[in-house]
Amino acid sequence: MNIQTTINRDQSLMRLNGRFDFNSHKTFRETYQQLLDDDSVKEIALDLAQVEYLDSSALGMLLQLKEKADSKRKVIKLKNCSQLARDVLAIANFDKLFEIS
């Protein structure tokens, strides 16, 4: 998976492209940790438009991100979800944990 990150004032955007699975763990964690450590960032949005595969380990990574973000009082949003991502997130009831658009 490829991740592009941009920061605009207090909002950051992580654009994920490709397969979001266990093999993405290290890259995903390193990327979001930098954003969590940046005190100027208050919101982290994940753009899932180009995610072509999402498995249970990806759901676990999203939960870890949310837990760490909550402890730092940062907001996590999931945006531009591909239909595949939207279906997987709905089955897992992630719409109750995340703002999904």
UniProtKB/TrEMBL annotation:
UniProt GO MF annotations: anti-sigma factor antagonist activity
Domain STAS: 1-101
InterPro entries, sorted: Anti-sigma_ant, MlaB-like_STAS, STAS_dom, STAS_dom_sf
Family: Belongs to the anti-sigma-factor antagonist family.
Name of this protein: Anti-sigma factor antagonist
